[in-house]
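Recap for those who missed Tuesday's class. We walked through two folding examples back to back. For each one, the amino acid string is listed first and its predicted structure tokens come directly after. Nothing is annotated here on purpose, so try labeling regions yourself before you check the end of the notes.
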Amino acid sequence: MIVYADTSFLFSLYVPDANSSAAAGMMRRIKPPLLTTDFAEFELTNALNWRIFRKELRASQEQAVLLAFSRDVHAGVVRIVPISAATFAHARRIARTQTRLLGTRSLDVLHVASALALRAHSFCTFDKNQARLAAALGLRIS
């Protein structure tokens, strides 16, 4: 089964928070690789640095998280896939049909379009709005 992870899931997987136990539990049930995009990798980096800005994380912790993430990528636990032009086109189609119904944000649409483009069956997220969109488009929410 192909599983896609958004940034909220990745963050909870690598940074202790209220969803970390759930993320770890999901990872025990997933057969690697866990798919994500270069965009999610960027978002993870930005989220870590936003936490540093807010004094909720130290720079040394950010480095440790990025090292752990990099190790998982190199070990094949996580696979980063670039977002294609076709995925952006699919995201535009989703936005035209679903945003007016669900009020989704553009970056949520892009994550869901990425999962669909990668032929994912399951979508790992802790974002309720993103989960609602993914479920509406046939993805199983993990």
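Example two. Treat it independently of the first, because the proteins are unrelated.
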Amino acid sequence: MTNDHFPDLKAFLDEKVLKYNQPFFIETDPIQVPKNFSGKENIEIAAFLTATIAWGNRLSIIKNATKLMTLMDNQPHDFVINASASDIKNLNHFVHRTFNGSDCIFFIRSLRNIYVKYGGLQYLFESGFQKDESVKSALTGFYNSFFEIGGERSRKHVSNVENGASAKRLNMFLRWMVRSDKNDVDFGLWDGIPPSALMLPLDVHTGNVGRKLGLLQRKTNDWKAVEEVTQSLRKFDSADPVKYDFALFGLGVFERF
């Protein structure tokens, strides 16, 4: 990305943010699942579990995340805290691609540990965040705490940025929880992490578009690529770089850019 093209590219991406960062975006996006809930804890648990299975066909993601909420009696926080062993056993038959019932049960047990021991997802992520840095430290701390009760089989379903993972789904979850603007697509429920520290939820679509626009040179969608493309986006808006997730994703998915 050269300085000569900077103003035009910024204007182009700002226009796409305005186009896609709109309520209609929710209609086809997994964020619609946590949008069905009220109360911070219900929203963040529904959002975390939905983000966890957010790979593959988006209609399938929405369908299965909705099914999971139904299995939790559409009271995710109460289920995490109070579900009996037999209630939790009902999750045994849940499956989304390689995320199966045993993974689901472990996730509920780990979430219970997080809410009982640490006071919840918000506190755990925010306590791991180091001021004036990106959310990498928060993601690392979360990963370590999430698996402190075991769950070796389920590690493949939570990205470890220390091993170079792009952490697309966790970064998307954090975008949902942290970002806030007048269009009310993201929730903006957490205030202990600034939007400036968020990292782009890098996937095939945003990666390909980023490369075509000269925002990303690295060929592998790993954590170094996340850092590179997010740094490029910070040049356009240092306070809210991941708002451009709407632009890159919209260009890739809706416009086949």
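Answers for example two:
The chain has a mean pLDDT of 95.
The radius of gyration is 18 Å.
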